[in-house]
């Protein structure tokens, strides 16, 4: 159908019907208002019925919450002086085409226009709350502001714009900004707050990290780290997060190390979990070894592990054995 397109501007949708005489039903193409795609449809029987509903495939595919819409409609014939049909203001939860029908006690002929003015659109909350309006769209604004900030921080780091701190690593040095370091780590903040050597010299020695790992740490603090760099330097980042009290980075490393436990790394992960007091990672490693019976896969490595392991860790492993293998 050539006249199935709906024009939109701001919160207004307008559907021009050029010739409905030959049809009893017509549905519009999808149009976007807010975060949803919509359809209008008209049906001719005794009354002219107009329906407004969100696009079902979009709701199911993207798992968008259903809209709670506040709107009004207007139907205007063209080429005559007839008064328009104007609906009341409706507020409806719209899921399917059966949720809203506006019958008009008239059978319009020729050309006419259907206007839908959306007064508000809210994201429906099934727990009985009011719902959150999508206007103004705080999510988009926040996303744009975040992207802009991250671009600026990335330039500051990559181009050393007004850098005022030098970090000496095990094999080189990198430049940074004391304000960023202080804002992201209470340890760095303390260095520059008190009369310590770092405050006077603007030099920090991190000799237990390589330059590459330290660059990954800085990119995390500046919010620009890439997934592959985080994955590659997880253990070094974990040590730095623990040393400089960067809690969110420590948690991120723990979650990441939980994702790929296997027979080749489980003992190393268990040692790291014990060293840095990562209870979730420790529990995951112990479950892997004993509940899933993978202890047999590391028989050759276990003797060397026991020679180096902390006594309390060994005791906890022994207790885990008793729990996992207790008689039924």
Automatic annotation (TrEMBL):
<dbReference type="InterPro" id="IPR000210">
    <property type="entry name" value="BTB/POZ_dom"/>
</dbReference>
<dbReference type="InterPro" id="IPR011333">
    <property type="entry name" value="SKP1/BTB/POZ_sf"/>
</dbReference>
<comment type="pathway">
    <text>Protein modification; protein ubiquitination.</text>
</comment>
<dbReference type="Pfam" id="PF00651">
    <property type="entry name" value="BTB"/>
</dbReference>
<feature type="domain" description="BTB">
    <location>
        <begin position="163"/>
        <end position="222"/>
    </location>
</feature>
<dbReference type="InterPro" id="IPR044714">
    <property type="entry name" value="AtSIBP1-like"/>
</dbReference>
<protein>
    <recommendedName>
        <fullName>BTB domain-containing protein</fullName>
    </recommendedName>
</protein>
């Amino acid at each position: 159908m050539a006249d199935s397109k709906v024009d939109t501007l701001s919160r207004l949708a307008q559907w021009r019907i050029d010739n409905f005489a030959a049809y009893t039903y017509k549905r519009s193409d999808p149009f976007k208002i807010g975060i949803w795609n919509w359809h209008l449809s008209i049906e001719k029987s005794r009354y002219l019925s107009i329906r407004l509903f969100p696009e079902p495939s979009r709701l199911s595919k993207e798992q968008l919450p259903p809209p709670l819409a506040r709107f009004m409609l207007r139907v205007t014939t063209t080429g005559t002086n007839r008064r328009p049909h104007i609906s009341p203001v409706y507020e409806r939860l719209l899921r399917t085409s059966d949720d809203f029908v506006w019958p008009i006690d008239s059978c319009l002929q020729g050309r006419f226009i259907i206007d839908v003015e959306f007064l508000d659109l809210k994201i429906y909350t099934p727990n009985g709350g009011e719902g959150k309006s999508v206007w103004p769209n705080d999510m988009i604004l926040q996303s744009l502001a975040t992207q802009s900030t991250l671009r600026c921080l990335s330039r500051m780091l990559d181009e050393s714009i007004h850098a005022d701190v030098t970090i000496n690593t095990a094999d080189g040095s990198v430049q940074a900004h004391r304000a960023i370091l202080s804002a992201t780590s209470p340890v760095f903040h303390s260095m520059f707050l008190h009369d310590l050597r770092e405050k006077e010299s603007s030099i920090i020695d991190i000799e237990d990290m390589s330059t590459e790992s330290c660059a990954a740490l800085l990119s995390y603090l500046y919010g620009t780290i890439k997934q592959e760099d985080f994955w590659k330097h997880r253990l070094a980042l974990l040590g730095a997060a623990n040393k400089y009290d960067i809690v969110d980075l420590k948690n991120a490393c723990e979650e990441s190390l939980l994702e790929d436990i296997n027979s080749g790394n489980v003992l190393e992960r268990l040692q790291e979990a014990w060293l840095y007091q990562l209870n979730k990672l420790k529990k995951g490693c112990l479950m892997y070894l004993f509940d899933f019976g993978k202890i047999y896969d590391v028989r050759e490595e276990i003797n060397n592990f026991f020679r180096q392991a902390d006594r309390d860790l060994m005791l906890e492993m022994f207790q885990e054995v008793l729990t996992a293998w207790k008689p039924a």
